[in-house]
Structures are given as C-alpha cells and as structure tokens.
Amino acid sequence: MTEKVIFAKDLVTSWLNKIKEKEYSITVHPKEENGFQFPERFLRSVTDSNKEWSEISQVEGKLVIKSKDPIKMASLIIQIEGMGYSVEE
Q1: Are 65 and 56 in contact (CB under 8 A)?
Q2: Which of 2, 10, 33, 47 has the most crowded Cβ, counting Cβ within 10 A?
Q3: Domains and CATH numbers, the chain
Q4: Would you say the C-alpha torsion 73, 74, 75, 79 has a positive or negative sign?
Q5: How far, CA to CA in Å, does 77 sit from each of 7, 27, 41, 82?
C-alpha cells in the first residue's frame, strides 16, 4: 500500500510562488512538410488559447514561448509535440 504524504498549504503555496518566479522558455520548430513555416491555423490555436499566461513571438521562423507557469508550459509542450512539432527547451 502506498503511503500518502500531506504537505501544509502554506509550504506548498510558498513552493509554487518560488517556482513561478522563474521564466521558462521553449522554442517550437516548424515542420519540413509545411515548407518550414507554421500554418496560420496552428499559430492562431497556440496564440489564442495561451496569450493570458504566456508571451509568444516568432524569431527567425521559429516560435518562442515564454512563461512563468511551468505546469501550463508542460501541458503546452505535450499538446504541441502531439501535433508533430519539435520542441526545444
């Protein structure tokens, strides 16, 4: 049987606040099959659904996404990789 560990709420809150002080960044590379460009539909879906918590820009044909929320970034990475794009941390 697995033992459950319960942490104090103030400890968890402090830890989360410390994690959210850092800025996390990923670079998304376009697919070769799209002529090394991002389709407009992909750009809209990534930008529209994530603009509240992240900063998204295009640099040298790559998509750079910055955020202070590592949990949402991890979720976004899984979503983007599931679409077949290469993600560099």
Answers
A1: yes
A2: 47
A3: 23-88 (3.30.70)
A4: positive
A5: 28, 10, 17, 8
Q: How far apart are CA 14 and CA 35, in angstroms?
A: 45
User: 55 forms bridges with which residues in the sheet?
Assistant: 66
87 with 80: CB under 8 angstroms? yes
CA nearest neighbour of 27 among 35, 38, 16, 17: 38
- Residue pair 24/70 in contact (Cβ under 8 Å)? The answer is yes
User: What pTM did the predictor assign?
Assistant: 0.78
Above pLDDT 70, what percent of the chain? 99
Q: In three state form, how does the secondary structure of the chain look?
A: CCCCCCCCHHHHHHHHHHHCCCCEEEEEECCHHHCCCCCHHHHHHHHHHHCCCEEEEEECCEEEEEECCHHHHHHHHHHHHHCCCEEEC
pLDDT (average), residues 44-49: 89
